[in-house]
Amino acid sequence: xxxxxxxxxxxxxxxxxxxxxxxxxxxxxxxxxxxxxxxxxxxxxxxxxxxxxxxxxxxxxxxxxxxxxxxxxxxxxxxxxxxxxxxxxxxxxxxxxxxxxxxxxxxxxxxxxxxxxxxxxxxxxxxxxxxxxxxxxxxxxxxxxxxxxxxxxxxxxxxxxxxxxxxxxxxxxxxxxxxxxxxxxxxxxxxxxxxxxxxxxxxxxxxxxxxxxxxxxxxxxxxxxxxxxxxxxxxxxxxxxxxxxxxxxxxxxxxxxxxxxxxxxxxxxxxxxxxxxxxxxxxxxxxxxxxxxxxxxxxxxxxxxxxxxxxxxxxxxxxxxxxxxxxxxxxxxxxxxxxxxxxxxxxxxxxxxxxxxxxxxxxxxxx
Amino acid sequence: xxxxxxxxxxxxxxxxxxxxxxxxxxxxxxxxxxxxxxxxxxxxxxxxxxxxxxxxxxxxxxxxxxxxxxxxxxxxxxxxxxxxxxxxxxxxxxxxxxxxxxxxxxxxxxxxxxxxxxxxxxxxxxxxxxxxxxxxxxxxxxxxxxxxxxxxxxxxxxxxxxxxxxxxxxxxxxxxxxxxxxxxxxxxxxxxxxxxxxxxxxxxxxxxxxxxxxxxxxxxxxxxxxxxxxxxxxxxxxxxxxxxxxxxxxxxxxxxxxxxxxxxxxxxxxxxxxxxxxxxxxxxxxxxxxxxxxxxxxxxxxxxxxxxxxxxxxxx
Lengths: 367, 316
Description:
The structure holds 2 protein chains of 2 kinds.
Chain A: H1 5-18, H2 20-39, E1 47-53, H3 58-69, E2 73-78, H4 82-90, E3 96-100, H5 104-109, E4 117-120, H6 125-147, H7 170-200, H8 203-208, H9 214-242, H10 252-276, H11 280-297, H12 309-315, H13 319-333, H14 337-365
Chain B: E1 3-14, E2 17-28, E3 32-36, H1 43-50, E4 58-63, E5 66-67, H2 72-78, E6 79-82, H3 94-104, H4 109-123, H5 138-150, E7 156-160, H6 168-183, E8 187-191, H7 195-199, E9 203-208, E10 211-216, H8 218-221, E11 233-239, H9 242-251, E12 255-261, E13 264-269, H10 275-286, E14 290-294, H11 299-315
Parallel strand pairs in B: 3-8, 3-9, 6-7, 7-8
Antiparallel strand pairs in B: 1-2, 1-4, 4-5, 9-10, 11-13, 11-14, 12-13
Helix pairs in contact in B: 3-5, 4-5
């Protein structure tokens, strides 16, 4: 059944040691981790803001100060006409324009409603939403202060409490998900490459006239890359905990075990790709194609709940969707197997499916 | 002698294309069997079927008494295969490649040590064990490939153009090696495009457009009656400038066919043509020194003529 396994395994390790391309693929996780961990920060702070102050007294300056104090707005300058305000936003110099009318302080003093216009660039929805909320919040708090009501005296007191990620930091959201993406990326790429390379160089044909068993051949090729993928998971996990300060709330053992479970469908995808790709270039393209749904639709970047129905349904067909659920569940929410067993079962089913598919393809492919 | 390779009606179709058509073969132990034919005529397909890499569409074949379809795994333990392209691992050293194949064939430690010594000595790879396969010359790559395919002491070895693209000295060395193997009783099934190599085979088969056109010992093939229709005979006409002379030879009324062969012209002439008469005729026409003598047809003449006859037959 596994004749030749040990020989293939040893040979594969020599390839890994000598092949620069493999080393490059192994460096990808670290690069991704730094990009997603540091560069991508969806927490909006200090949005460039221009002020069109027609009131020009202590009261309006106080308001501007309060906008700045929210830390969501950064006043980068004053404008002197509606057109100037408009062009500051169109040109992208500012995302927000605050227009304080000439009667602002007069209205306040006379107990009338004072209006302040906040013009927001809606083209970046995350930023816009944040600016919208902060400015409304500011108006609300200011109104309360004028009426002399402290927030504690409100008739209805809604008290939101954020579980698991109290400061709403996007690192906590991205880095656990990144583990899934990295694990899939590395295993799919490396397995697809390892098999396609043998065919491209004619060495596969030579192997097939030897008594090596198909089981030994496939397993011998998969095991080293499984080990690499798994080792990288551990490295990313360590960096997550110690560099990005995202603690693992749940069981690390469960996390690692379920990660191994996720490796099976990922390896299967790699083998299926290898049976279609004629050369390493094609394998590269197909691997990238296979990553795209996992990247965009698994909930790694965009919340699945906000996707259109068809795409939402499609996202259930992606193994990474379930693994990401597991990762965030264990790392952020401290979920145990009781809460995650259905995801685990689906992953196992995907594993069985992709492995069967790859075995059929591989067998047919070799004639 | 016992028959070690036997094919009956072996046929392979790829869709509408027939790559091998109804091939019958019997090869004896210890033979160097030459398998010739133009590119795309189906040589590699035959080898790939016999090695169990491809399933035949029809017909059957046996290797050492084992069925190529049902007993593929048993066959694989008994055959060696050296493909057209260098198909070992270039990023592994000579030694690592040899050890890898030894392990794949399941050679135990004591056996492996002995076999390794034997094939390394046979292929002349001493002193190159630490070298990466990628840095070997063409000839040495072929030696390494041969060494790896011989590790498990196979009784039958398939060599698909083992000398393609390597220099003449290396070619000769590979052939010396093949003779040594054959002398030890190994059966060799070799494809080649080189006529001098074909001449060295104990028997040759010529396959053209998926059909076997000729099969036999080189000297027997040269006596095939098709080659000398109506008791015509072959002449070698040597001159300083054969290219210049060729059209003149072709215009001669007694000459049926003429081709350049090395530095001379091989011409097929009607019955009763005299070498001396031809010689003086062309000497006069050409103005140069011309030598003419009756010769047996070369193996190349055999194949060229058979191909032409076959083409005319199919056209009709």
